[in-house]
Design goal:
Helix content: 40-55%
Strand content: 15-25%
Structural class: alpha/beta
Number of helices: 16
Mean pLDDT: 79
Low-confidence stretches: 1-20, 22-40, 272-279, 281-286
Radius of gyration: 52 Å
Distance between the termini: 116 Å
Shape: rod-shaped
């Protein structure tokens, strides 16, 4: 649909040609001295094989032209016989190309008859045919530079004027053949067909001027037009010659770069080729020309001697009588700002009746919907593809996405992977059901501990309380109370202070509790050993040893926690990778090794307490705590051994809940196993809480 300017003999076309011819004369006339000389007796023989199809019109200034109106379609070059004996087929006439000759002749006639343009000077024409053959193009070019009927370029044998410029050719091959000769004789050549030149060619052929802009502009315009209508699956038609091959070499990569594929490529036989032309003439100095023609169009050339032009986008219509007509529906302006080169009036476009006036679709397959991406189909062109759903963590918000895009770290894809939604923060809150349950348990166990402490303080002078070292009992109950309360540090949004304190507080308080249990166990063992006659253990029995065990056992944990806080302090962080739809607000422990060192030391104290208590379980006495300590340590160790795999397999707030549950359950095990039997005797069996009962059992 990107049309080159029509070459029909129209009013607009005639005016353009006349203006160009006039400018040529204005610029060339001062540079030429018209010398009328008498005939010279030439010794050059006439051309034995003159070009039969020609047109000559004498004039003061002569303009040459090479047309392709007549062609030999089956004339193959043969070296088996002399050219003069070769039998040539009847030439065929390309009717459409005849109008090129008429346009030039008509423009010259108009200029010669108009006294306002040229005074005392006439224009002449000398047009020869190239027959669309390379050797005939060379012959015609040399003939234009020679005296009529002679073949001696740049040699004057009579008073006929030399050709000052040559118009042609229509095909790129013809233009190239002409340029190779005209450039030697420094004769301007004005091409009116498609003729692509490289930078090196333009430097070498400095006398060639192109009336048709570079094909690249047209190719880009076609690509923009295809993108406008979303056509990505097209067919390519090209001439079956060098021009067609050059067209395919340039257009196919450009289409691929813009995600357009060719479903087929068909090469047309050369005999079916019809080509439009644009303006016919240029001048040697037109590079400095800048004016508006009668149609209001600006005429100028760029630095590469190419016409700066705007392409029309035309809509071809087939009329009821079978004829064709064209309607302009837009234009392509290569000099327009990027993205605005193509303008279309879609309301003027008339589609073929088979489309029911609906925009036709030209794609290999249906577009991929949002939430999918294109994947290559093996053995097919890239315009044919499969649609694959976006993987986890990625999305595509538009149709025909080449690849899914990863959501930002703080977002996650929607169910259809069409967009990214913000992740919401989560932590173990006091408002959560799980948080409410754990807070209730922590408060309940704390109240039970306070109740037990109150009972022991009320009955502090009874044998059962005194026999188990009241100070250690109070220390153990207070440490259990703080253990239950320390679990509240794990609930709520993590902050700098809570992250810094909760693990170390839990580790230190539990260490005091376990050290106290170990001290009570050792005290029981030493007390029974001291009752034996002659035993030297009596000097070790007392509060001093018990308190030393508690302090020394806790001191090691204090060193570990101090080292942890000073070197690898815990801190709050946002975990955005563990769960797909949430941001976990949690405490980073700073050092996993230090965290497990604290747990490991607690396990060491519990193991020692369990071993000592297990060995002392069969000692006599109604108030022997060894059995109860054995059960409490068994519960404690079971809880924390099961804690490690549960903790590692949990995420987010459930990981915190596992640790809180372990703290509460192990603390409750110590409270229940050690103090429930004593409270039972104190409150429900007071007859057993007497000194005589203790002495009798021992």
């Amino acid at each position: 649909m990107v049309a080159r300017k029509a070459a029909a003999i129209s009013w607009k076309g005639r005016l353009v040609v006349k203006m160009l011819l006039l400018l040529m004369l204005v610029l060339v006339l001062p540079c030429h001295i018209v010398c009328w000389t008498s005939s010279i007796n030439c010794s050059i023989y006439d051309d034995p094989f003159p070009i039969p199809h020609n047109f000559y019109q004498p004039g003061d200034l002569l303009i040459g032209g090479i047309a392709s109106q007549v062609a030999y379609f089956n004339n193959l070059l043969s070296f088996l016989e002399h050219p003069s004996r070769m039998v040539l087929d009847e030439p065929g006439s390309v009717t459409k190309n005849y109008q090129h000759i008429l346009a030039l002749a008509f423009a010259v006639k108009e200029l010669n008859e108009n006294p306002n343009f040229l005074q005392n000077t006439s224009l002449g024409l000398y047009i020869l045919n190239s027959y669309s053959l390379g050797r005939m193009t060379f012959k015609a070019t040399l003939s234009l530079l020679s005296t009529q009927q002679k073949l001696a370029p740049n040699f004057t044998c009579d008073n006929r004027q030399k050709v000052i410029a040559v118009v042609g050719g229509l095909l790129s091959d013809t233009s190239a053949h002409m340029a190779s000769i005209l450039n030697v004789y420094k004769t301007p050549q004005l091409t009116h067909g498609s003729f692509s030149l490289t930078k090196a060619d333009k430097q070498q052929f400095s006398f060639i001027y192109q009336m048709v802009p570079d094909d690249t502009y047209q190719y880009r315009g076609v690509v923009q037009l295809l993108h406008h209508f979303r056509w990505t699956w097209i067919g390519l038609l090209a001439m079956d010659d060098d021009n067609g091959n050059q067209f395919l070499q340039r257009i196919v990569p450009l289409l691929s770069e813009n995600s357009i594929c060719s479903a087929f490529t068909y090469k047309l036989p050369k005999t079916t080729y019809l080509k439009d032309i644009s303006e016919l003439l240029l001048h040697n100095f037109l590079r400095r020309i800048y004016f508006n023609n009668s149609a209001g169009e600006t005429i100028q050339f760029d630095e590469d001697r190419e016409l700066v032009s705007v392409f029309d986008v035309t809509n071809w219509l087939i009329l009821s009588n079978g004829s064709f007509t064209r309607i302009k529906v837009g234009q392509l302006d290569p000099q327009a700002p990027s993205g605005k080169e193509l303008t279309l009036a879609e309301d003027k476009i008339v589609w073929h009746k088979s489309f029911n006036q609906v925009l036709p679709v030209s794609v290999c397959n249906d577009p991929c919907q949002p939430g999918h991406s294109k994947t290559k189909m093996e053995g097919r062109k890239f315009c044919c593809y499969n649609c694959t759903p976006c993987p986890e963590g990625m999305f595509s918000g538009q149709k025909d996405m080449d690849a899914c895009v990863k959501c930002p770290d703080d977002h996650y894809p929607s169910n259809g992977h069409r967009e990214c939604l913000p992740k919401f923060p989560t932590y173990l809150s006091y408002k959560d059901t799980l948080g409410i349950i754990l807070v209730t348990l922590a408060v309940s166990f704390s109240l039970f501990t306070v109740l037990v402490l109150g009972i022991f303080m009320k009955y502090k002078n009874t044998p059962i309380v005194k026999a188990n070292n009241r100070s250690l009992t109070y220390i153990l109950l207070l440490s259990l109370l703080l253990c239950f309360l320390s679990s509240l540090l794990f609930i709520g949004e993590p902050g700098k202070v809570t992250c810094l304190l909760r693990q170390t507080t839990f580790g230190l308080i539990f260490c005091v509790a376990l050290s106290t249990v170990l001290a009570k166990t050792i005290t029981v063992v030493l007390a029974f050993m001291a009752t034996k006659p002659g035993s030297h253990m009596r000097r070790w029995v007392g509060k001093k040893l018990a308190h030393s065990i508690v302090l020394s056992g806790s001191f090691i944990q204090v060193l570990i926690c101090t080292l942890w806080i000073c070197i690898y302090p815990p801190f709050p962080q946002m975990n955005i990778h563990s769960q797909p739809k949430t941001i976990i607000l949690e405490c980073n422990e700073g050092s996993v090794a230090m965290f497990y060192s604290v747990l490991g030391y607690l396990g060491f104290l519990a193991s020692v307490s369990f071993t000592v208590a297990f060995l002392a379980r069969k000692l006599p006495g109604s108030f022997n705590e060894a059995k109860f300590i054995t059960f409490s340590m068994l519960v404690f160790c079971s809880v924390w051994f099961s804690f490690i795999p549960s903790y590692l397999s949990s995420k987010g707030k459930f990981m915190v809940a596992v640790e809180i549950f372990s703290i509460l359950s192990s603390g409750a095990g110590l409270l229940g196993c050690i103090f429930f039997p004593k409270c039972y005797i104190i409150l429900l069996r007071p007859e057993m809480n007497i000194r005589e009962q203790m002495i009798r059992v021992m």
